[in-house]
Amino acid sequence: MKNVEVKFPLIEDITMEIAHKYGMIQPGESNTKAVRxxxxxxxxxxxxxxxxxxxxxxxNFDELYRAxxxxxxxxxxxxAMPADWRPGDDVIVPPAGSCGVAKERMESQGDIKCxxxxxxTKPIKKEEIEKTILKK
Length: 136
Known about the structure:
The structure is a single chain. The chain is of the alpha+beta class. The protein has two domains: 7-59, no CATH class; 79-136, Antioxidant, Horf6, Chain A, domain2 (Antioxidant, Horf6, Chain A, domain 2, 2-Layer Sandwich), CATH 3.30.1020.10. Helices cover 29% and strands 19% of the residues. It has helices spanning 17-21, 61-77, 99-108, 126-132, and strands at residues 36-41, 47-53, 90-93, 113-116, 119-123. The strands form two sheets. It has a three-stranded antiparallel sheet with strand order 3-5-4, covered by helices on one side. A two-stranded antiparallel sheet has the order 1-2. The longest helix has 17 residues, at 61-77. The mean pLDDT is 83.
């Protein structure tokens, strides 16, 4: 690939010190090569997600990007994401705590759909996510 600007830190680990600390040496695979791993580290320095790939398997960059945007959206809107979520799909609203609270929430916020008292979803438009998270 040409003319690609990397806007995030990459780590060179010639001594394998970081690979050992982060558990990236795959048993039986190699003592001198680390598995391919992606760590999502938030601005506070907390590891939010880790995805490991064997040496023989390429990474799915669409999935990595989807996971990043999903975590940023979850943080910004205080929601949870269903599997395979993409911008524009419904998100999961934190549990209401009881049937009564869920019913009140549904009545006060018409865009929330509750399937049971503990499982409600709401839409967040793709355009809103693009504006707030992706800054398009």
